Amino acid sequence: MISGGRSLVSSPPAFSNDAKKLLICHGNTVSIFSTSTGLQITELEGHKALVTSVIVVPASTPASKILCYCWTASLDGSIRYWDFSVPELMKMIDIQLPIFSMVIPSLFSQPVESDEKTRDLFAYVSIGVNKQDKQPNTSRGQIRKCNLTKSCLAGGVTLAETQEPEFITICLFGKYFGIRDKRKLRIWHVPEKDSERIEIKKMRLHHTKTLTILAFHPTKRIVAAGDVSGRILVWRGFGNRALSLSNRLKNGRLMTYEDERPGVRGDDDADSCTTWHWHSSEVKLLLFSSDGAYLYSGGKEGVLVIWQLDTGKKKFLPRIGSPLLFFINSPDPSLSSISCADNQIHLMKMPSMEILKSIAGIKLPCSVPEICKNSFSGFVFDCAAGLVAVCAENYCIQFYSLFDDREISQVQICERNHQPGDELTVILTLAALSLDGCVMSTVETRLPEEGIGGLVSLKFWMCGSQIKDFSLSTIIYEPHRDSGVSAIAFHPTRRMSVSTSYGGDFKIWVGNQDIQQKDKMLQKTRWTCHAVGSYKKKPMTAAAFSADGSVLAVAAETVITLWDPEMNVLVAVIGDSLECHTVQFCNLFPIHFENISNGLPKGDDHQPSSDQFMELFDGFEAVT
Questions:
Q1: Where are the alpha helices (DSSP H) in 321-392?
Q2: Is residue 487 very low, low, confident or very high in pLDDT (cuts 50, 70, 90)?
Q3: What is the pTM of this model?
């Protein structure tokens, strides 16, 4: 069985110390990509379930940037230590509980090659706990401490219980880590010398709406959080406990607690709280720049917003084309990565925000309204090249190799920017490929607004190379008058195609090449209508050619009509053997027809008698 097309964006990726590699959680493995080419180099295999965290061990000196060690955690309950330059598994720890997130603060707060090599190394993990009572308010998540040196959970140390397992965020130098828990943030301060016996300090910050994400400033006690309404809150000076009474006297009068700490709710441990609002829906991405001067945010709009921390002024990187999930800085300040919901990771040149390379996984089929689901084809196979063509979001078709597990190309069927929240007005309903993969046909439907303005477009595309760079050849508006196109099929050997319609007809299209010579040969294929057919005005729901192309089968509700595609002559009809179901054909037509028209006497309607028909198709079983 061939498997491929796993998610690249289920968890944040990580850069190697020299920024030449990007480690990506890729299903049950960690795939390692080159940042210069965007191609996969190798992968770390061994986990039995989804990998949820990858942490690269930082270099303690510039000379040690060649070190290639990392920790990974998975839903299989294991934590693994790798040398990913080989790659080789160095150590495995099994805590027997699914790990949803993991941080290792001491990796960043102390040198890796220190003299204190005997000190234990601790990780903090967000785990899932199976509760037997399964009550609605039962906590299913815990934040636990794990001793990586002794390969076990720290006994009796549970930092927090949450209704669901939460993602853990850590600051750049490992002093603080935290989670969002409904309408509050839980933050822990990690001591310089961590041990199993030390109880780490904790604090909480509250909000009026459900929080979605948080980020720590790299050098200052500043934390930012986004909520479901699109607001961003920035708490400054968190962790400085209540001011003394003497400091609360100003100009001879007693200041209220709220006056001293603008924007801070209740007894929250922070000096001030500022609110910014630009996003129209929940904030999914939040990260401070490496120097702490800017805050990056993103969400459903597909726009990266860059906030100046001191002034609140903002600028934008628009038209990324998909909702944003993660933004990661690399050890090289000129390189970052941004992960998008369309299963794509962009490598970006900083600070210009220019996209250098893109690492693309397989895309999900686009969503369609209920009224169009009967005619929607989510994907087709290019058998000649071993590719799958997926009708994806933003009106494109992605050609993906399941063998190499990578994207080959994208074809933009309809030019349109990503517009979050807008109702669908154009739907890519059908796509079909010729047997050799050189011709593609697509159907896009523009939905009517208040019953006015609907339009169906049939397009033919020609492929110019093996990398599937299709170019538009012909556009046919309303190919079947006001009716929608139900199916498309290609002739196995000729430039011929058939489209069927719910309006009760089918049309045969042929491609003709125009050759012009102006300094060089220019070939252009245009497609024209060769013939039109119908059967008793019944809706035509499916079509397929025989293996040699001599017979065209078209389904007309519960019957299958057989035609000579060259002469457009009805050869035979497979009768009402299916009374309740509309006939549909699979992509690969299962019957290898002979040219059955030879020697059959035909009446005025070109149909053989019922006795001849039954003798001819004795034992034939229609496929639905």
A1: none
A2: very high
A3: 0.81
